[in-house]
Every structure is written in C-alpha cells, then in structure tokens.
Write a structure and sequence with these properties.
146 residues, alpha+beta
C-alpha cells in the first residue's frame, strides 16, 4: 500500500483547516487535507505541497514533520506521515484533480476550526489515528509548527 501524507494546516489566526466531507451513502466526516505519494513525487514534503495545491489551491510555509501513524485499513496497514504547516495563500479556484471532477466523490468543504480539543471531539475526524494525535497535541501545535 502506498504511503500518504496529511497536512495539519494552521491559518493566519492559528485555526485548523479541515475538510468537511459529504459523500453519498456515508455519514458526514471531517479530515485534514492530504493524499497518497505518487511515483513522480521526490519526497514526502513534495507530496504534501502537491496535495495541498490540488485540494485547497494552497501554498504553505514552515513545514514541520509531526508524526507517522499506521493503522489497519481494508485488510492492510496504512501509514500516513503527518506534517504541520502554515497557510501562506489559498485560492479555491486553483483546486484540481479527481476529487473535484467526479461528483460521486462528494463535497470537500473547507472549514477553519479553533484549536480546541472540544472542536476535534465535536466532529467525526478521520482517520482516527490522526484525530488522536491532534486531540493529544492540539494546544502545542502553534509551537510545534514554525
């Protein structure tokens, strides 16, 4: 299984940038942006920059490795490398990729959420391993990320 990256992205007001996902046939959930490493990606950080541009039209700074998490997924073990970063710019008009071309993939609505543990618990944030990390480290994130 290909590894993937996730971006714990803080905006200018130290709010967490999340996707609210509405997918046909599934309960609504939230997630941090990210995706799978592609063969043309030179590094995990390159993957992160590509995914944030695709999914948010975003450029970021202060990229900081936070943690790698592994968990069972579809009969295999999925590994996600989680990076913290700061939002420099975001233009939803620049978003591209299969997430936005195929209506069956549902909606990717951007939310800016205060950095409070209660905000994590109030949402069904997946993957659970990333939600657990965020919940345990939510108040330290501004210090951990540049």
């Amino acid at each position: 299984m290909r590894p993937s990256v996730r971006g714990v992205l803080l905006d200018h007001d130290d709010r967490l940038v999340l996707f609210r996902r509405t997918v046909p046939g599934r309960a609504r959930y939230w997630t941090v942006p990210g995706g799978h490493v592609e063969p043309e990606d030179g590094s995990l950080e390159d993957t992160l920059h590509r995914e944030l541009l695709e999914e948010l039209g975003a450029t970021v700074s202060d990229v900081t490795f936070l943690v790698s998490v592994s968990y069972p997924w579809r009969g295999e073990v999925k590994t996600q490398h989680v990076f913290g970063c700061r939002l420099v710019s975001m233009d939803p008009e620049l978003r591209y990729g299969p997430e936005f071309e195929d209506p069956s993939r549902g909606l990717y609505e951007v939310e800016h959420v205060p950095l409070r543990r209660s905000e994590i618990f109030a949402r069904k944030l997946i993957p659970e391993a990333v939600a657990g990390y965020l919940s345990a480290n939510i108040t330290a994130l501004p210090r951990l990320i540049g």
